[in-house]
Amino acid sequence: MSSYQKRTKDELAARVAQDIHDGAYVNLGIGQPTAVANHIPKDREVILQSENGILGMGPAPAAGEEDYDLTNAGKQPVTLLAGGSFFHHADSFAMMRGGHLDICVLGAFQVAENGDLANWSTGEAGAIPAVGGAMDLAIGAKQTWVMMDLLTKKGESKIVKQCSYPLTGIGCVKRIYTDVATIEVTDQGLKLIDTVAGLDKAELEKMIGLSLL
């Protein structure tokens, strides 16, 4: 058994931010993905969009400087960069559905090897499932990236042969960023981009239960 250290939430957010190209229009989903805003390289212009009607968000505000009239779709206070704007919810969804976003970064319960995404319901009793704008983002963005822990609390892989949870989008995921590895979804199969130090490909394949290119 190899010895490796998982990426922290901030390290994972920084890893995602590293791959966002200059000039990209990006939506960061509720949950872990919102932290990506804090790690955009300072020499790179990335225009962040929120489905509740904001374009041009910056990093999270400093403690004590929060404005709760300025929040993202997850009700978290945000900042606005110079040139940022507000608009109607319907206009925001027109951006999302119309192919105007280069990248969306979403959390997930499961991602299938063909890029199917399940991120809105596990069917647990008492849960209040709501797909929200995820289905619009998953299909509307030019690229859908997923950011998540590789394993569930039970130690089961969230990357699967076929999703068992209700689908959000079909064949939409292009990249999977996890706490131990980065994987690309290709027509030929899942392609390993990188792993954390100390984790080799064979052990990662064993964790996932699928072969990697």
Automatic annotation (TrEMBL):
Keywords carried by this UniProt record: Transferase
NCBIfam families on file: pcaJ_scoB_fam
Transferase among keywords: yes
PANTHER family: KETOACID-COENZYME A TRANSFERASE, SUCCINYL-COA:3-KETOACID COENZYME A TRANSFERASE SUBUNIT B-RELATED
Pfam families: CoA_trans
Keyword check for Transferase: yes
One GO MF term: CoA-transferase activity
Entry protein name: 3-oxoacid CoA-transferase subunit B
Record field: transmembrane: none
Membership in a protein family: Belongs to the 3-oxoacid CoA-transferase subunit B family.
InterPro entries hit by this protein: 3-oxoacid_CoA-transf_B, CoA_trans_fam_I, CoA_transf_AS, NagB/RpiA_transferase-like
